[in-house]
Design brief:
Layout: E1 7-10, E2 17-20, H1 44-56, H2 60-66, E3 72-76, H3 82-88, E4 93-97, E5 108-110, E6 114-120, H4 129-139, E7 140-151, H5 156-161, E8 175-176, H6 179-188, E9 191-199, H7 202-214, H8 221-245, E10 250-257, E11 265-267
Parallel strand pairs: 3-4, 3-6, 6-7
Antiparallel strand pairs: 1-2, 2-8, 5-11, 7-10, 9-10
Helix pairs in contact: 1-3, 7-8
């Protein structure tokens, strides 16, 4: 966690949370550095991340687009671009934006440009996630999909560990979604949710242990890789538990653009990947 005093304000309706105090988009930059997880470009961790991203495209969330003919995809919060590289290998035309240096509020104009927009653990980092979902909807072609993966603020681990939960990650995580919260956000953005699920997290076990032991989660280095390997070995147990009673540490959601006309919006993007 970054230095400073931060507080999470919980919605009495959906149970999602918002990190206070509020900051403008420009105020997010000091919360990140070159070694922040998705931006770290050194060591064996990068090779590991590329392998995980390749496997990620085979999950149920991404099969909602990879089982169809390849099209154009925008990844919001692309980091090093590992996910986009894996989709490009599947013949998708890829565009990436890194949320630390740009948001869907600034850049090139256009609508109906993409078959899919993905927010893989990035939607919780932006200042106005509801606005970004609306802008994402406008960027979709008719029937296009928005794919979202975020930590589950309503998870069993979140409730048990409170402010020491690794995925709270204040102040970088500005919004902390529950299942009800992400559903409401999609509907409010003009998307029709077709699938929302709590998922067990391979990373959670190792991350929670590291957070509890050292007071900080660092997704890099030998210690992280060893911890991840151990967590992967016991993951089937957490998967079964989530399948039976829910409460997994991750949320995955898919929303389809409704047929009504989309407004023109503005985005910052490059044909390829933007690295922050």
């Amino acid at each position: 966690m970054a230095e400073g005093r931060f507080e999470v304000f919980v919605c009495g309706s959906c149970g999602s949370g918002n990190t206070g105090p509020f900051v403008e988009e420009s105020g997010l930059v000091p919360f990140y550095d070159s070694l922040y997880g998705p931006h770290d470009g050194s060591g064996a961790t990068v090779l590991f991340a590329k392998m995980v991203s390749a496997l990620r495209t085979r999950t149920k969330l991404f099969r909602t687009i990879t089982k169809q003919e390849p099209g154009a995809v925008l990844d919001v919060g692309s980091g090093r671009g590992d996910l986009l590289a894996s989709l490009k290998d599947r013949d998708w035309k890829v565009t990436g934006i890194e949320t630390v240096v740009g948001t869907l509020a600034t850049g090139i104009e256009g609508d109906g440009l993409f078959d899919a927009v993905t927010f893989h653990h990035s939607l919780g980092h932006v200042v106005e996630p509801h606005e970004d979902l609306r802008r994402a909807r406008a960027l979709l072609k008719p029937g296009g999909r928005v794919l979202v993966a975020v930590p589950n603020f309503g998870s069993r681990a979140s409730k048990r560990m409170g402010e020491t939960w690794w995925a709270l990650d204040t102040p970088r995580h500005r919004t902390h979604f529950t299942k009800a919260g992400i559903q409401a956000a999609m509907i409010g953005a003009g998307l029709s949710p077709t699938w929302i699920a709590e998922r067990a997290s391979v990373l959670g076990t190792a991350a929670n242990f590291q957070q509890k032991r050292s007071g900080a989660f660092t997704p890099s280095g030998v210690g992280f890789l060893v911890g991840y390997a151990i967590a992967a070995a016991v993951y089937p147990l957490f998967w079964v538990r989530n399948q039976v009673s829910g409460g997994g540490e991750a949320l995955a959601a898919v929303g389809i653009s409704r047929p009504e006309s989309n407004p023109t919006v503005t985005v910052t993007a490059t044909d390829g990947v933007t690295n922050g």
